[in-house]
Amino acid sequence: MKLITAIIRETQLDQVRQALIDAEITRITVSRTSGHGQQIREEIYRGKKVIPNLIPKIKIEIAVNDEFVDTTVKAIINEAKTGEVGDGKIFIQPLEECIRIRTGEKGGTAI
After folding, report:
1. Domains of the chain (ranges plus CATH)?
2. What share of the chain is helix, strand, coil (3-state, %, to 5)?
3. Which residues, in sequence order, are CB contacts of 83 under 8 Å at separation 6+?
4. Residues of the chain with pLDDT under 70
5. In the chain, what is the straight-line distance between the N-terminal and C-terminal CA atoms, in Å?
6. How far apart are CA 75 and CA 15, in angstroms?
7. CA angle 81–84–89, rounded 5-degree value
8. I need a surface site. Which of 6, 72, 95, 97 has the fewest CB within 10 A?
9. What CA–CA distance (Å, rounded) separates 22 from 67?
């Protein structure tokens, strides 16, 4: 089992979500977050050029069984990629355990 965390642009959420649904990945968690990397966005505030410290992003977390990792990653990349700095990142981590609270199921069947 793996936990896939993707940080993407806010504007790409609907396309990424639909691509995941099309790939039969239907259980996701979405959070609004902010941060910065190489992306620099200048704004004009009261006539002065300002570079905000943190840029709004979307964080998607998806727990998948090992056989769905490549499918999930491809779906995210295909829809989140604009070719510009700031497209985001995908992190893949081992998931030690998953437990469904309602039934007590554990492991891959709980996902």
Report:
1. 2-110 (3.30.70.120)
2. 30, 35, 35
3. none
4. 39-42, 51-52
5. 9
6. 10
7. 55
8. 97
9. 16
